[in-house]
Design brief:
Helix content is 36%, strand content 25%. The chain is an alpha/beta fold and 305 residues long. It binds zinc ion. Zinc ion binds next to loops.
């Protein structure tokens, strides 16, 4: 059973909206490509894990803090007596491992050893479970999801699952006996409740409201600004996606909230932000449906219900 589905990382969304609304340095472009590639790899992994049939609970994309250290778990599987954690890498190309050193063969450059990251997360999660009074054991797995990846000189005892081994790995999980009880649901809820929503690792470029180009970004390609299609729909000139006006406006308001958590949501700000909607009445109607109006004389604003 999936307790928490994976969604597009907030950092990636914010970077893409920055890229569409202003000129960004090449560094940001690279960051977007890396995050996007990672997310695609994780999504492919999720699809493969759909064939899991053992009694279990899955929590995707968990950001935790234990003893003041933050760590990210791509996927966590509670299948008593164990908790499996998965670090998913969408690397491509030839790499070589020598002891603790990992190198790309094409560039010769050393890369961050993904096994160290995995063992750190495993150890921190173990400590957290102890603090929570759980006696489940933790097993970490490094998944290389891309068929174009090859690792030279990898000893067979490493906790790595290569893409061609994934089917067998899932079959071996399915062959294990596992039974979920209420205590495991309670543990999953507890982990979800301490999940950190805003990543302390995210590196966003500096931006402000005035410099960003206004308009409703297309939710499909994150590249075009929606234009009026007909009375009820907007359309993207870049990818031709048609969308219901209200859905598009709501997405645009949410994007505004994420980009400017300290700015007040007012009819005029959102009217300005959406640009393409020519009626303040429409904006007010949508805001009133989903937000609560805080009356403050001339400067009334809306807050989440
Ligand atoms: Zn589009």
């Amino acid at each position: 059973m999936i307790i928490k589905k994976r969604t597009v990382p907030l950092e990636l969304q914010l970077l893409k909206s920055n890229r569409a609304r202003k000129k960004v340095p090449e560094k940001i472009e690279h960051q977007i490509i890396t995050l996007e590639k990672g997310f695609i790899g994780e999504t492919i992994f999720d699809q493969r894990m759909e064939s899991l049939s053992l009694d279990s609970l899955t929590i995707n994309d968990l950001l935790l803090e234990t003893n003041r250290a933050h760590y990210q778990i791509d996927s966590l599987l509670i299948s008593p007596p164990k908790i499996h954690i998965f670090e998913v890498k969408n690397f491509e190309g030839d790499f070589i491992v020598k002891g603790d050193q990992w190198k790309s063969l094409s560039t010769g450059k050393e890369i961050k050893n993904p096994l160290l990251q995995l063992s750190r997360s495993t150890s921190l999660l173990r400590q957290l479970l102890q603090q929570l009074g759980s006696n489940l054991t933790v097993e970490g797995h490094l998944i290389f999801i891309n068929p174009e990846f090859y690792l030279y000189e990898a000893p067979p005892n490493l906790p790595i699952v290569f893409q061609p081994q994934l089917n067998r790995f899932i079959r071996s999980l399915n062959a294990q006996s596992s039974k979920i009880y209420d205590t495991h649901h309670t543990l999953a809820k507890k982990l979800l409740s301490i999940h950190i929503k805003k990543s302390p690792f995210s590196l966003l470029p500096a931006y402000d409201f005035d410099e960003l180009e206004k308009g409703i970004l297309c939710g499909e390609c994150w590249n075009g600004f929606m234009e009026i299609g007909n009375q009820h729909k907007l359309k993207c000139p870049k990818c031709n996606k048609w969308e219901d006006k209200e859905t598009a406006i709501i997405r645009c308001i949410e994007e505004f909230e994420h980009l400017f958590p300290h700015m007040k949501i007012t009819v005029s700000t959102i009217f300005d932000w959406c640009q393409v909607i020519k009626s303040k009445k429409t904006i007010r109607k949508i805001l009133s449906k989903r937000y609560k109006l805080i009356q403050f004389g001339r400067s009334s604003f809306y807050v989440k219900l």
